[in-house]
Design goal:
The protein has two helices and seven strands; from the N terminus they run αββββββαβ. It is of the alpha+beta class.
Length: 156
């Protein structure tokens, strides 16, 4: 009898979770970073998926840009390719990999065309794009670290 009771006590916690379904989560659209502003040329009726969205040429975002640390060189990006600080690449939370975007620094007008190959930036603070070192150099933002930018989708 004791063996049966002990066996039930050991098995009960294992079996108790088997029949339960996890609570349904509302699928939230990550969209641009929270403080990012969309220009009037974008439409709120666009259909988006939770992992990446089909970019539309001409879509525009405004927010902050930062750039990758050199320590990340060689590490895999979300697309699987290694991060190369010498390439003109960027991270965006929702745009599909391979999307070309123009990033324009709002205070100087300097711009650079980059290819999205990673996910991010994470952590909010109004950042909408992370740039490779070379892209950041073209925008002359190395010293500042974070600058206000406009991001325009050029093509998927």
């Amino acid at each position: 009898m004791r063996v049966l009771a002990l066996t039930l006590l050991l098995i009960l916690p294992l079996v108790s979770g088997c029949g339960l379904r996890p609570a349904a989560r509302a699928s939230a659209d990550p969209g641009p970073a929270p403080a990012a502003k969309k220009s009037s040329s974008s439409s709120s009726s666009s259909k988006k998926s939770s992992s990446s969205e089909a970019p539309r040429a001409g879509r525009v975002f405004e927010g902050k840009a930062s750039y990758y640390s050199d320590r990340l060189a060689g590490r895999s990006t979300a697309s699987g390719e290694p991060y190369d600080p010498k390439k003109l690449t960027a991270a965006h939370l929702t745009l599909k990999f391979g999307t070309r975007i123009r990033v324009t620094r709002l205070d100087t007008g300097a711009s650079v065309v980059v290819r999205v190959n990673d996910r991010g930036p994470y952590g909010g603070r109004g950042r909408i794009v992370d740039l490779s070192r070379r892209a950041a150099e073209k925008l002359d933002m190395i010293r500042a670290g974070v600058v206000d930018v406009r991001v325009e989708v050029l093509d998927p």
